[in-house]
Amino acid sequence: MASLASPRDRFPDSPPRPPAPTARQPSPEPPSIAPPREPSAPPAPEWWSSHLDPVMWDAEDARRELDALARAAGLQPPDAPVPARPNTTPPFPVFDPAGSPATTSRLRPEAWAHALQGYPDPAFVHNILGMIKHGAKLGYDGPLRGSDRPVPRNHNMSGEALTAVRTSVREACAKGFTRLKRPGEVSAQSPVGAVPKKPSGWRMINDLSWPRTQDRVPSSSVNEGVQLPERWLSYQSIDGLLDDLTVDFDADTWLWKMDLKDAYRHVVVDAADAALLGFHLDGKDYVDCCLNFGGKSSPFIFNMFSEALAWILASFGLRNRHLLDDFFGRCKAARGPAILRFLDALCGYLGLSVARHKSLTGPCVEILGIMVDGPTASAWLSPDKLEKLRWSVRSALSRESNDQISFSAAESLVGSLTDATRIVAAGRAFTRGFYDWLTDNRHRGHRATLRLSRDLKSDLRWWNNLLRKWPGVRLLRRPRGSIEIWTDAATSSGLGGHLGPPEAVTARFSAPVPDHLRGANIMALEAEAVHEALQRWAPAHKGFRVVCRVDNQAVVNALLTGRIRHRDTQRVVRRIFTLLHEHRIFLRVSWIASEDNAVADALSRQVLAPVDIRGSRTGGHSRSVATRASWRSPTGRPSGRPTALTPGGRLRDTPVVPYLPPLPRLDTAANGLPRLRPFTQALLGPPRNWQALVGGSPDFALFLWNGLSPSNRARIEGAVHDFADFAATRGWTKPYFPASEHQAGEWLVHEAKRLRAKGPLRATTLRARLQALKSWHIDLGLDHSSLASPRLARLITGACRTLGAAPQHRKQALPITLPLLRRVLAEIRRRPTDFGGRVAALALDAAFCLAFACFLRGGEFTHDTFDARRHLRRGSVMLAPGATATLHIPASKTDPHGGGVTVVIPEGPPDVCPRARLRLWLAVSPLRGDNDPLFWLPGGRFPKSAVLDALNRALRSAGVPTDGFSGHSFRRGAATWAASVGTPVDDIMLLGRWKSAAALKYIDITPAAVGALGHRVLSAPASQSSIPASGVPAPGDIWTPRV
């Protein structure tokens, strides 16, 4: 086997690769590009290496020039050999060593041979060089070879399309792609036509699939004689690039793309096969000398050259992806122009033509029809495509269509839906059926009229409901955590599954087979088991990665692709993908052997008792699993973010919120281009039946809903569902509301027993559950006097005394005092790469300084989903020179009406000065609008879980145990530090915005300080006391207690 060579082996004059740095160097300042941004424009002429003439280079010139351009682009050859590319084993001989090309090829065989040195598969290199020297074979084997087929009639074309075809033929003849048929030459001719080309114009097609069966012509087509396997070519897509941006987000990310001009025309065909590519136009006969659009084998043959180019780029150290002639990737902002210059020079050296007007680099680039924004890690459909998709779906569902659609319109609709599935992955389950539908009807021809089936109309209605409010945006966000779900089904007994691996199960369920699936295929039941598990556990794990283990390979493939031919299973798959979309779940599916799925199998056969995180809605109630769970983040370290587990390892009773969170808003600039606001999100709105429940006008219902915070609404929802489930199990008569005192008391008894089974019972928990039920009565305008009965209060007290209540102590966050704050900031500044990069480290630095100096609560400077009305925005800070620096807090825990409060930002020592750190952060942050978030991390949000995770990392680096710190640690630490330096309590209350003695709960005192106070009392001399030395009161003395 030939030895593998790297570009350094091919270019021996290049300098050695510098050693890898031990620590990452600080990245340069991010570009001041304020999103939303416009798509990047084509590069300026000076970006290209147009002053070079690669065709005139010799080998030495190529080695020096390409190596210099690669170094200028920051490319370094990889240390390990680059692996072979896919799609490189042809199903037929692609060249004839005795053949000759139909015309002179522009590709330079010596350049390709030089660039492909070291490719792992010599046979592939042999095929590439053979096609360049001898011409490519089309793989045809049929009766048309050597025969002169009569001239067919060309396809009908409009005047504009015919003009475009004539122009295309003239240009092709001038470039040598096409020539006139020679006298006496034999060729098989096919009709020509034109198809629309994006974004405008027409593309000429030599219809090598003519004649089709419905044409009833006693002849065969050229494509019919090309035998290819069913899955002979697997295309890459933009999904890989979006996944890269999701995993490795950087605000300094730019994108690049390169498009090859006259893509298929680069490959000259064998002269014998060129006789199969004849056509007739305007009384003249022509023969194509190069691959053309319409040939069955053209994509595979050209893709071999694309794969070779992709390997060459990777051998230089340029990570890339491609779809036929479209190459794309990501890079650092400063290197984009240099990469384009390198690509242009390399392609020119190989003989490839670059479409410079389509080759772009910048922060926002359109790739394969999708707008991708690197710095904000987002992707979206252009407004034109989104509006076209909406119109196509509405037209197909309209009453005028009568459930009928033309084949060409169906193809256009499916193409638009496919683009949309790159943005909303759940749409794949509602699009796959259209592919099968088109495939089954393709034999009827493009002029046929097709009828939409009931399932297809159901899929279109799903898309129509989504498109009504969906702005076409996808935010590329990392999962918040990862969980495992194991499921199984048994046709004779039911469904089962568990949360967590078999050795550490945290929850499990058993359920009967639904009535509508009784007697169904096992595939539908296996899919329903997955749906049941997600329905139970997905609401408590929004934004998580869910790894699903299934022992049925057909269901695994269906969940990976969203497609299965079995109708009942496909319907279940649709429901699964809807759940994934609603709860923003990242689904990963893997097959496991049945013997490794024993626990789920036992649950499906009703062998083990069901235990669930919420309890089955079909009846009964649930218990908690006593198993202690080991909950870890994807990195393997204990996660600091809140999960569905209590600190003791038990499951929380997390309520399910029955409404979809709104999607990010897409504004439009004056020039019509999309202006993405990925960090804004409206307040959670009421569910659809809310107005019907409470009555009144829409505004009345909306104001009533917003009278409570979303978190309180979620708590009420859970309590009401649990009460209704309990009432159903008791057989009480509907409606269950208003609840009587006796009914509420019986439910509290049940709740007390259930909560005690999970852990220590707290009276505050029972009171909160009762208060949630009372709040629901208030919403509905029902009498709630029975729920305020002293009898129920005494019942709660009795339950705690009988069942054993938890100790009455409140867990307090540990304080971050000023010395500890300095240690935390020192760790962040010393190693910014450990905290998400320099930009993220500056955001954390400024936020921590501001939180301490202004006595902020954790929820006042963080946000999971940004809303300018409730969270700190850039306009909240006033840092005008010569004026008092202020911070406006729009809403807080003690500000239910959202009136806001303005606090003064003090000035301090340089290392902890909030004003100085804010000025530095605002100068670096690319978000410049007043309504943009004040703080953000890679991914656009500033969630409390990520901020606390960064705080814990800094504390661990400083050698401080992390147990006990929370978002309140800054506020508690500021109060404690202020008291320790002698600040009066009244002043502390002023600084922290306290209006009562609750401020005293925030002032901590160490055990050493308490001991010192006790020592001072014991050591005080008797002369300092007014009590007699004997300690006994004199006769007649009256000691008055001090009030």
From TrEMBL:
Alphabetical list of CDD domains matching this protein: RNase_HI_RT_DIRS1
Organism: Trichosporon asahii var. asahii (strain CBS 8904) (Yeast)
GO molecular function, one term: RNA-DNA hybrid ribonuclease activity
One Pfam family matching this protein: RVT_1
Biological-process GO terms, alphabetical: DNA integration; DNA recombination
Keywords, in A-Z order: DNA recombination
Descriptive protein name: Uncharacterized protein
Record domain Reverse transcriptase: where: 195-370
Comp. bias (Pro residues): 13-45
RNase H type-1 domain ranges (all copies): 523-605
Composition bias, Polar residues: 619-633
Region (Disordered): 1-50, 615-651, 1023-1043
